[in-house]
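Newbie here. two chains, one complex. Structure please?
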Amino acid sequence: MADTTPIRAGLRLPTGKLAGAGFGLAPIIAAVVLLLIVLAAIFAPQITPHDPIAQNPVLRLKPPSADFPLGTDAYGRDLLSRVIYGARISLIIGLGVTVLAVVLGLAIGLVSGFFRVADAIVMRIMDGLMAMPSVLLAIAIVSLFGASIWTVMAAITIPEIPRVVRLVRSIVLSAREEPYVEAALSLGTSMPRILWRHLMPNTFAPLTVQATYVCASAILTEAILSFLGAGVSTETPTWGNIMAEARIYFQLKPSLILWPGLALSLCILSINLLGDAARDVLDPRMGKRKD
Amino acid sequence: MPVYFVRRVLAAIPVMLVVAVFVFLLLRLTPGDPAAIIAGDMATPAQLERIRDTLGLNDPLHVQFLSWMGRILQGDFGTSLISNKPVIELVEDRMWPTIWIALITITLSVIIAVPMGVLAAWRHRTWVDHIVMTFSVLGFSIPVFVIGYLLIKLFAIDLRWVPVQGYKAPSGDFGGFAIRAVLPALTLASIYIALIARMTRASLLDVLNEDYVRTARAKGLAERRVLFRHALRNAAVPVMTVIGTGFALLISGVVVTESVFNIPGLGRLTVDSIFARDYPVIQALILLTSGIYVAVNLLIDLSYTLLDPRIRY
């Protein structure tokens, strides 16, 4: 249910009906911010002033200076360089989980929506998965199977799948009653072809919107896992890891937590805002509302 | 209604069964010997054998599952591998901080979020609406622990209004409890407020154009009465639904918030037992939280008939 809730940006140009699609200022700013984060992640080795991992005890917990724009952490590492590198894991996990959850959820949802026998069983399993708190499930999986970027990805993907399945299934359930599906059936079209050619295209627009929310949620969960110490190796600079390390120094040097926190929040915020914009453009049901 | 009630309660059984199977298989599917994973690298063969025995790992899989389920149905969640205490006792020791914080959070969220959503819908497309929706998007996007640390920085370190961390039981020192519970509850509430405010607004916007709202206004009712008595009532069902589904966020948030604020509740117990690989405790906690989630949503489903007499099952 929460997935179909409109997340709506308050920031809009005064002429809210610009371009007829309700494009405001917020999605444009969000796109620019996200682009900057992606570029920073890709070109991290070129743009970072210092090595994010090499420790230098002499320079520990230094305040911001020309050489270290955000100061240094408890091991004398440059905070700015670490925060820039941190974008890499977040984006890889966000992208990886989104692709995995959408592909798997789409496949399961199509089958479940079309075949009543499969539906009953699949939906019970999905209900069960949704009943388990996703963060708990993810930390349990990671700590039992060992922490690597792959287990983290899998652990975050599993709780995301049911939401995609539910969305796809609900679309298929209404689409399969349409005359064109009936026509295709009566012409003897094979099941896989009906699913692939006639039903699947209906899911693309809502799935695009859903994918942005899955991505934002995956990046958030990864950060929580790292923060709790159940994410990728603590040697890797991730936003969650940087914050976890800085916890004991928080009263002394809050910036060690606040900067990665800001990066993380901006990243999730811009993805959410882009998702809202995508919904405004792609979701015809929303378009009809007087909103 | 009673028939529906029974049917809904019965429908929760397969869901919990799936959860139980999943939780059970989680340990059995891990690569390697579960006993070795639990015991760690330094275990002696005798220790391994003892763990295998406690967990019943020497039996066939289905026997293990059935006997485990049977014990759980009798209220026996096993014994902690670390402290050797019954899991139930551990949970009882740690549940009160979590329950208190959660109750304050939910109350706070509803009190803040519903008027926010009503205001935004009432002043739709004005600056009031924009501010509420900006808050909502921010609340939804800024991670719980970031909000937690921001609040600590502002109210505990800079302003020194409240202690940085810690917990006190409300029975002993209520003032001490309240002053320490404010920040964690606000932290946890942030995402819940965002969710409920947005849903209240969207749901209210749907009904504000209905004829009965126009009628209520036409007969000269005060706007507040129209909004809260007539419109909000009819907009309540989706809001209740989102409070139920948002409960999952609350549970995940508790785990993080208790770590940020050093609260000795169930969230900390969960993280501690996961790192200690205290499997009986992990199993019990996932089962328990899933059970609470299912029960809350069941109650909310059943409350629809009270909120909206048109809903008949």
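Moderator note: Chain B has a mean pLDDT of 86. Chain B has twelve helices and no strands. Thread marked as resolved.
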